[in-house]
Structure formats: C-alpha cells, structure tokens
C-alpha cells in the first residue's frame, strides 16, 4: 500500500512539474511577439546532440523561430559584405581577426544593455572580454579561444634521438635537419606557403621583436612591412627553404598540411590547440602529438596569437531581432551549454585543449589531458595576443611577399616587403584609415 501511495505521489508531482513547465512556456510565448531570427550555419556539426540543443533552445523560447541559411567556409568573415548588401544574419559567430574592422565599421550592436542584466556575465574571463570592449562598449561575447602553439611529432623526434621540443629558431632548424627524410616523404618542418601565408608569418615577426603594422591612438594604422623584425623573419623562412627542411610541395594548402602532420609526414609546424581532435580523428596517435610554445626568435620571446570566435549582433537588425539574438547568444554561451558541449565531445574521443573563456570552468574538467597540454595552455595566456592590426585588410599584401621569398631563391626580402608595403599603401591603407579613424 505504501508503495502505491509513493508512486501516486511521485506521479502527481511529475504531472504538476510538467504542467508548470508547460504553463511557463505558454506564458513566455504570450509575453513576446513572434520573431524570426536569421542565422548563418554550415553543414557541419549537425549531429544529434547539436540538434537536441537547438530543440531545447526553441522549447525555452517559443516566440522565436530560426531561419537557418547555409553558409560554408567561415561565415563570420562574410558578415561585412552581408550587412552592406542587406543579406546579413541577425547574429554571427566571427573570428577575433575580424572584430576590429567590424567595430570600426559600426555594424556591431553594443551589448552592455544585455550583459548588465545577465547573471553569468561576471564569470567571463576579463582579458578576453576586454579584447572587444571599445570606449566602454562591449561588442562581442567570446565563445571559443584557441592559442596558436607549436606542434611536433614525438615519434619522429624519438627516431631522431631528440628528447625535448625546440625552444629557439636555431634549435628548430637543427632538429628539422635531423628529422628530415625525403626518401620516406618526411619533412622536418612545415609552414603555409600557398595560402594565408601571413597567418603563420606574423608569429615569426613577433618572435623577432617587431610587427607588421602599428595601431595609432586614433584607430588608424601604419604599415611596418620593412621593420627589421619582418626582414629577420623572412630570412629565417629563406633559411628553412634553402636547408631543404620545409615540405617539398609548397602548393600544399592548410588542410593538406594538417593531414600530412597527422600521417607522420611532418616533424613540426605552427599548430593551434583546437586542431588536436581533428588530427587524432585523421589517424594520429594522441601520444605522438606534442604541443609547446613557439620557439623564440631573436627577441628571445615565444610570442604567439590568441585566436577564437565571438558572438556579435547585427546593428542593422530591428530591436525585436536584436533581443532574440541576445537570447540565442546567452543560451549558447551559458555554463550549462558549455558543459553539455564538452561532455558530448568527451564521449567521442580526444578533445582539443582549448580555452573556455570563463573563470568558472575549464576544458580540463571534462577530459584528462597530458600535463604538458595543461602547462602550455596556461603559458599561452601570458604570451598570446591578437593578430596584427588590420590583418583582414592588409594580409594579402604580406602574403604575396612571403610567397615570393619562399619560391624564388634570389628574392631580396627587403625589396619584396618594401614593394608590398608601397602597393598596400596605394590600394588599401587610405580606405582603412578613413573607416577606422575615431
């Protein structure tokens, strides 16, 4: 009899909870006008967990419907063009690289009115929040943070009698010579040479003690392509090429390099922390994947970049859509969402040692990483910085100069970068400064 009463009580409580939850949803729907939220999505990451989280969001926000537009590649990088043409989504998750340009262009909605009343906002890491705070206005909510590190194949290192990761450019070159084995299609070292070459090259410039641009107090930029540190980095690239330790096929693109690294064809290369899972899924033994800070250049510093994505709201959307966009952002950046996200990843194998931009949780709460991964993530926080100012506008000019010095053994770095700076000043600098001047 007692069991029957207990079951009846539990059933009543369950029905009451369900009724209350349903009433709350109905009430929420009645309090808001229906709104359609346009978002850009890729065809990737549409697994059962992802779909279940989307269903949960819609259940909790019954007045919101999603208009999902498939946009392959990096949707965040196309946001500006979308705003200009009137086809942009109401929110987007864009790369850190694009944030300065978007803020300067006035296409991002300040988020202070939302963050001030969000009880989770105080848990976000200040150093990442500050990256997207201009004149006390918050323009982006950091979502993912992944430092650019240096990856090396421990198995290849062991075969060459090497016991530790390189700490300087000179060591890296020496180690690469020992690993290099063209007969077995193994390159001691690799870097981007066919596309996005400025992406990797900038780290070497920083490690040499300089930069490719200078941000002025008024938001304008100065080009420093001829900085002595740029020339030092270029000469190091030339040395890697002349010593024969770079990948033999310089037309390999980013995906090719990471695939070759996973297959044991590359000894070491710049390597972001969020590539670990992909590399392991491509067949690499996780025990063979070493991560360290980039080797130091002439400056003695192991400077690198902090990359990642931030959620932003389209300043051109109407108020109802902005409010709905915030509901989406706060849901997909909540502690509960992050916990569910990383728990789901942990069930699928190796996690990437990324940084959750919150102080109340860490990716190490969900997966047992090698101690060196924990250490290098902590170290990266102190030496990481955003990519060079104006990279989205000026990067292609650096790209051409880097490609020339890698493919032409007679190329003069000083001339190539002077020419690149002159062309950039003629074609891109004036319009950039007009758009970004405060």
TrEMBL record:
Residues 1-23 form the signal peptide. SUPFAM superfamilies: Periplasmic binding protein-like II. InterPro entries: Bact_solute-bd_prot1, SBP. Keywords: Signal. This is ABC-type glycerol-3-phosphate transport system substrate-binding protein.
């Amino acid at each position: 009899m007692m069991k029957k009463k207990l079951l009846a009580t539990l059933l009543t409580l369950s029905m009451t909870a369900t009724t209350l939850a349903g009433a709350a949803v109905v009430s929420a729907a009645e309090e808001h006008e229906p709104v359609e939220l346009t978002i850009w999505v890729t065809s990737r990451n549409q697994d059962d967990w992802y779909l279940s989280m989307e269903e949960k969001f819609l259940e909790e926000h019954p007045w919101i419907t999603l208009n999902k537009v498939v946009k392959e590649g990096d949707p965040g990088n196309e946001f500006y063009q979308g705003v200009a043409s009137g086809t942009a989504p109401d929110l987007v998750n864009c790369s850190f690289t694009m944030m300065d340009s978007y803020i300067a262009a006035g296409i991002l909605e300040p988020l202070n009115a939302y963050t001030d009343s969000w009880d989770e906002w105080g848990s976000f890491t200040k150093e990442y929040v500050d990256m997207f705070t201009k004149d006390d206005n918050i323009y982006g909510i950091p979502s993912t943070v992944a430092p650019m590190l240096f990856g090396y194949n421990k198995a290849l290192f062991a075969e060459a009698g090497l016991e530790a990761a390189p700490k300087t450019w000179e060591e890296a070159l020496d180690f690469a010579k020992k690993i290099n084995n063209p007969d077995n299609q193994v390159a001691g070292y690799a870097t981007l040479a066919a596309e996005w070459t400025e992406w990797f090259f900038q780290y070497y410039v920083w490690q040499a003690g300089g930069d490719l641009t200078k941000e002025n107090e008024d938001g304008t930029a100065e080009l420093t392509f001829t900085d002595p540190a740029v020339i030092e980095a270029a000469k190091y690239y030339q040395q890697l090429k002349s010593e024969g330790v770079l990948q033999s096929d310089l037309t390999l693109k980013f995906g090719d390099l990471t695939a070759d690294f996973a297959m044991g064809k590359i000894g070491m290369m710049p390597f972001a922390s969020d590539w670990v899972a992909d590399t392991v899924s491509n067949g690499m033994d996780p025990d063979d994947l070493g991560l360290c800070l980039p080797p130091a250049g002439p400056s003695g510093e192991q400077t690198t970049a902090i990359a990642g994505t931030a959620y932003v709201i389209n300043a051109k959307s109407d108020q109802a859509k902005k409010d709905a966009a915030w509901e989406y952002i706060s849901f997909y950046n909540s502690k509960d969402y992050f916990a569910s996200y990383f728990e789901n990843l942990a069930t699928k194998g190796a996690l990437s040692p990324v940084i959750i931009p919150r102080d109340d949780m860490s990716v190490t709460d969900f997966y047992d990483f090698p101690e060196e991964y924990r250490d290098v993530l902590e170290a990266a926080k102190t030496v990481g910085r955003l990519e060079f100012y104006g990279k989205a506008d000026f990067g292609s000019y650096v790209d051409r100069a880097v490609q020339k010095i890698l493919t032409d053994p007679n190329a003069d770095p000083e001339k190539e970068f002077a020419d690149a700076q002159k062309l950039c000043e003629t074609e891109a600098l004036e319009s950039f400064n007009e758009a970004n001047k405060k």
